[in-house]
DNA sequence: ACTGCCGGGGA
DNA sequence: TCCCCGGCAGT
């Protein structure tokens, strides 16, 4: 009589050589580099951080536009370009307070950014990005929106939701739907899940870094079972299970 | 220092 | 696909 399913206990039932094939677990849906790159790029250029108007479009024509000073520590928001420029010039670049148009005309451009009222759609798009990234502009576009602060961390959660399956012997994705098996626990990289306001002024980690650590999906918690390496020793490597030999999750001594 | 293993890369 | 390994996290 044939037993057709060889799912979890590989060696007992499946008759093929132990080390024939293992397939690397696909753990999460890929967080694309695009996202990361976007984050990196954006973070490296504060002046355009929150510019919500497409570049081709002239900033003046948005009636609800506001302009925020990007000078470190300054939160000044003004409703006109002239105003914000003057602010930057006089408050921060006060080298030549007297003459307006002529001197260092472009310099103050680096120290303000346009902020318009953000549509919910755009807002949600922004929320996919690192939380800390749009933080500065989210703050002042809708300072009192309660849904913002609460939804920021969790909304991304559903995107990066992991499929909790890790065995090398895992059946194809069609078989496992999405029931997270109780047997497997992952450590979420950030268990306190940043409900805290996260003051952007005090931030000392780079945004890219931050984003990475918040989206570091999960890491299998280290089981206490001895694995092949420990059991057989380095010098008997050939007795290890394939996964261990390949420095993958051991498939012989499961946790 | 050692262990387990993810992610990535070479053939 | 098979195999190896850098590097990281946890012990
Ligand atoms: Zn093993």
UniProtKB/TrEMBL annotation:
<dbReference type="InterPro" id="IPR013087">
    <property type="entry name" value="Znf_C2H2_type"/>
</dbReference>
<dbReference type="GO" id="GO:0000978">
    <property type="term" value="F:RNA polymerase II cis-regulatory region sequence-specific DNA binding"/>
</dbReference>
<feature type="domain" description="C2H2-type">
    <location>
        <begin position="69"/>
        <end position="92"/>
    </location>
</feature>
<dbReference type="InterPro" id="IPR052253">
    <property type="entry name" value="CR1/CR2-DNA-binding_regulator"/>
</dbReference>
<dbReference type="GO" id="GO:0005634">
    <property type="term" value="C:nucleus"/>
</dbReference>
<keyword id="KW-0539">Nucleus</keyword>
<keyword id="KW-0804">Transcription</keyword>
<keyword id="KW-0238">DNA-binding</keyword>
<keyword id="KW-0479">Metal-binding</keyword>
<dbReference type="GO" id="GO:0006357">
    <property type="term" value="P:regulation of transcription by RNA polymerase II"/>
</dbReference>
<keyword id="KW-0863">Zinc-finger</keyword>
<dbReference type="GO" id="GO:0003700">
    <property type="term" value="F:DNA-binding transcription factor activity"/>
</dbReference>
<dbReference type="GO" id="GO:0008270">
    <property type="term" value="F:zinc ion binding"/>
</dbReference>
<keyword id="KW-0805">Transcription regulation</keyword>
<protein>
    <recommendedName>
        <fullName>C2H2-type domain-containing protein</fullName>
    </recommendedName>
</protein>
<keyword id="KW-0862">Zinc</keyword>
């Amino acid at each position: 009589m044939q037993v057709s399913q060889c799912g979890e206990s590989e060696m007992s039932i499946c008759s093929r050589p132990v080390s024939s094939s293992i397939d690397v677990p696909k753990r999460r849906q890929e967080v694309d580099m695009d996202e990361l790159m976007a984050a990196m790029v954006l973070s490296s250029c504060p002046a355009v951080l929150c510019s919500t108007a497409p570049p081709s479009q002239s900033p003046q024509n948005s009636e609800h536009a506001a302009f925020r000073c990007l000078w470190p520590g300054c939160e000044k928001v003004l409703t006109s370009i002239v105003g914000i420029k003057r602010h930057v010039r006089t408050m921060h670049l006060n080298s030549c307070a007297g003459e307006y148009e002529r001197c260092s005309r472009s310099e103050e451009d680096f120290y303000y950014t346009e902020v318009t009222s953000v549509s919910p759609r755009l807002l949600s798009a922004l929320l996919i990005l690192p939380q800390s990234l749009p933080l500065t502009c989210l703050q002042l576009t809708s300072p009192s929106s309660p849904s913002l602060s609460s939804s920021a961390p969790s909304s991304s959660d559903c995107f990066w939701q992991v499929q909790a399956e890790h065995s090398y012997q895992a059946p194809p994705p069609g078989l496992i739907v999405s029931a997270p098996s109780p047997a497997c626990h992952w450590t979420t990289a950030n268990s306190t899940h940043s409900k805290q306001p996260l003051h952007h002024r005090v931030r000392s980690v780079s945004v890219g870094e931050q984003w990475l650590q918040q989206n570091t999906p999960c890491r299998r918690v280290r089981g206490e079972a001895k694995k092949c390496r420990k059991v057989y020793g380095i010098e008997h490597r050939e007795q290890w299970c394939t996964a261990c030999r390949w420095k993958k999750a051991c498939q012989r001594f499961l946790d």
